[in-house]
Design brief:
This protein has 487 residues and is mainly α. 65% of the residues lie in helices and 5% in strands. A 4-stranded mixed beta sheet has the order 1-2-4-3.
Amino acid sequence: MKKGALLAGYLLPRLRDIFFLAVAFAVILLGPRLLNADGDLGRHLTIGNFILYNITIPTRDIFSHTMTGAPLVPHEWLAEVLYALADRAMGLNGVVILSALLIAGAFTLVYTETLRRSQMPLLAFGLAFWGAAASSLHWISRPHLFTLLFLAFWTSRLLRVTRAESTPLWQFPLIMLLWANLHGAFIAGFVVWGAVFVGHLWEQRKFTPVTRSLLLIGGASLLATLINPSGWHLWQTSLGYLQNRYLVGHTQEYFSPDFHQAGTWPFLGLLALAVFALSRGWKRLSAADSLLLTGWAAMGLVSARNIPLFAVVAPQILAETLRAGLENVTLWQQVENRLKNIEQNLRGFLWPLIAILLIALMVSAPAMTARNTFDPAVFPVQAVDWLEAHPQSGNMFNYFTWGGYLLHRLWPEQKVFIDGQTDFYGEALTRQYEQVITLAEGWENVLDQYAVTWAIIPTDSALSKALIAAGWQSIYQDATASIFIRK
């Protein structure tokens, strides 16, 4: 019996392992959506492959004909390299696996910290999984997934510092060094740091060893962000974009959440749970926790892009409050105690190997490979197939959302007019693109200004009809895309 129990302890997964697998499989099953819900993946793969092939990070534009040679801040270069490596190893299946590992890893960290603060496995599992569900509206294969992972780690460790728990300070600038080269939302780390620092001062009202530690963390981490291909320009790009009301106002993910859409309901439910738990007064939050919870909730209501960040932070903060409310619920406490007793006898050393094998088998299945592709109804897949057999000369005009895909398939032979990196292209060119696509006055002059000789645009767009009326010739058409040339 003892040997059997020991063997079971090694083979059976712990709750944390089950959580990781559940989230990872959920992400993998949504693979087609991850690849097709956004047009930027192609650009990220193109830049990543360029860096791998040339062993150099581009700091001047080489991808568009409209801004060739303009200074380029590669604020996601390391993430792009990792995505390109995943694509080289397993194609788009590899991209989906990397995305699944990042999301599952982020919320497994949330689960671990929530469990540490609540000491209730079932509560921690439920809160962390709820957070993952709330973040799912922005599950897209893009570098922002690295921000979820780093924010989960950064927040939990920073809150431990405020409690004077043993936490190596050197890890903070190291995290920030990686974060700043992976994704421009490293600024979220400093938002968390600011809330924690202000909350600590609010409560202590004096200089303490914790105050000194927080100042060291902030200063060292700030310096670490300057170690990147563009130095201080990284901050200029990230903050400059957020301050541009036109660009932010024309980016859908920066809009406020639409609660008539089912994808936002887990976020709404998490907000309601927070309000309910705090209104019961089971446990008073620290000032830092209060600032983090209310601050990210407010930012999530302002911009749907911030909902996943709230979903990472909120479960960690609500853990102790909900624990205080559930401690007197006898049945709940009995279930929690039973789970803790089971967990104590599990080691699960072999389970990570089994999990990796299961994920590999799942993703490598022919049916899954067939699903993880660029959708021809979303991207001009067939049109680009035709272009590869019938290459066009001169400068193109392209549909904004297709820019990244066109780079992935046609660059360097063809450069795009514009793609999804509006923080680089800026307001002026984005307005000119909008002028053309909406047929605003002077739209033909924009095409003349950039010497556009051919265009690839949606078949059902008003611009398609306008080009025909203006004397352009249609040389290819399918249900998704049409290609025109100047006569």
